[in-house]
């Protein structure tokens, strides 16, 4: 799964209110033997006040142990025959479920079935059916069998039911914002801006909201789903389309069959008016389901999929293991994307026009979900505690694909951004990757399981080498195919391939919380560099890390690599050199997951930039150098970086040159103007425009005017953002001509511009945008609307106030409600009567994330 990428802000404000727990579990070793149990520091509640001074804010509460589900029955096969009542938003289904006792004889079958009306439950014996007694509490269906069944006796039950997802209590999390499993989008067709669709979301336990099953990740089943729909709609489900039958009532029944077993949470269906673009990989169907208006650009968005399938198949030594692969875009999706077996669901923002593709692509999420077809679908975590076995690998696949397709610099830039997301989350939350204690299973979907886990895998790859790393992944997949696993299987695969005991690595990186906080300094004397390394992290709650690392010394412009292993809280190393080095660089390969502080002079950082062997070394120099008045050496380096071959370096330099006021400031601004107009990458041009916008009392309106005619929406949006602070009469008409554009970069830029410079003419624009913008845009637009309405006469605000209030109370996305609340809060400064409304909104809010935020805002 790829959770919705709404920016680090939302994680920073939401996750401190959903802190997780701390694992303790022994790790099985080969041949049934066990290594010593993983030990953790005692939780805060068990430590006497005298033993510590301060409990860190990121230390989670003690949550309950969450073991893997006990297996009483094995799912074997599920056959579903379903149709839909759009008006009532019901699914009418018949489920035929084949099961067998796992080991012990069973006289009862318990199925997860949430919010159903159960019509009948029957045992199938050949051509005969027998009614079975059952009890149902709207959550679980407990069926009394006609006898005790042994593990050698599979049997079938048939259940007729209606699923009513909208009658379930609302639930959700930061990563998966709703958990009702089955979703009807615009079911009555009343919203002319939105298509009618039906789709499902199974992870974590949403499948049992639309069919009865044992809704646990350690189950596997084959399946067949027959969908009866109005003839104009396309359908999609797992596996291959084996039949499509026209019915006399104008409907059509499509039957989809998956012959290989997978976990129930990976079952899916989608129904809607789609254009289906066909592709292939080695003779297997590869299809892209998009809204018809995106048919012309669908191949450009998804077209790298067959090459990804080929790359991953070769890299892993295991060909894509399923019969087909399809991807579908749906409206109002409750997460980022979901790796349902053979049929990935994406949110609507995966769809891009050819012009929008000038600014960005969707390769990261496409690669992420595709890699799950191996890590997550082919081999599945046995419990949500082991979720990183799915998500860390999918996260790392984004690096692997970027490295292969676009080069290591692109991959490293992506990894740097992701590491920043983890560090931001770690300010308020630190958990082991593998967590056997948590409050809610969906708490596992965080920056730890994804970004930290991906970085840990990158370190492991660097530690043992590419050959061993990918040989191990092949072994792990081959040995565990179509089964559920825990972290021990992964460790043992790496140990079997390398011949090394890697318990130390898995213990400190997977089983313990936190990360190293490392301070490095050095000195030179008598032909030696003395390197001082201090691990500064709180070792009461985090380990002292074992850190294999490369230190590079540069003398006579020649690098020498020294491989050291840090094992102590404070450690000194002697590195032989033939003269005083121009640079000493700790972790020169930039693979270490650590909060690293190195003592370096300005001259050393400049030297590092010019002699960098990788992008991250250049980026470190750019980010750590602070240009000041008279720093010609630094400004010269940054101007040089504006011409680097890699766009990420050029963008970092443009960002670093903001507000530069040195003696060559005029030359700097001329360079930024050149870059803003001529750089071949729109991300660099837009950053240069925003940098120009930070220089006070200077007129760059000519540059902004040219940017408003750019081919890139991102660049146009940056120009509008810059003009918001320094509007000009000459550009006003051009900006107003963009009001019908729906590109997110333009919508949010226009929203910010009109918040500061709009008039009554834009009132209807805001009202329209509040109706048809996606959730990520709405968060910002709602806040800007509040600022904009301060410019409106009070008597004209009623309609906008009502819209914001309804949104703050009822919008399904919590962060949109927060944005609307902020909009009202801005208005309350001039309209004191709104304070009571805001208090009522706060008092009736049920989402714990928002409640916590509101408490901070008061």
Automatic annotation (TrEMBL):
List, alphabetically, the Pfam families matched.
HEAT_2 (PF13646), Peptidase_M1 (PF01433), Peptidase_M1_N (PF17900)
Protein name listed in UniProt: Aminopeptidase N
CDD domains given in the database record = M1_APN_like
| One of the record's GO molecular function terms | metalloaminopeptidase activity
**What cofactor requirement does the entry state?**
Zn(2+)
Question: Which GO terms are recorded in the biological process aspect for this UniProt protein?
Answer: peptide catabolic process; proteolysis
Going by the UniProt record, its keywords in alphabetical order are: Aminopeptidase, Hydrolase, Metal-binding, Metalloprotease, Protease, Zinc
Q: Which reaction does it catalyse?
A: Release of an N-terminal amino acid, Xaa-|-Yaa- from a peptide, amide or arylamide. Xaa is preferably Ala, but may be most amino acids including Pro (slow action). When a terminal hydrophobic residue is followed by a prolyl residue, the two may be released as an intact Xaa-Pro dipeptide
- Entry GO CC: cytoplasm; extracellular space; membrane
The family this protein is said to belong to: Belongs to the peptidase M1 family.
Domain of life of the organism in this record?
Bacteria
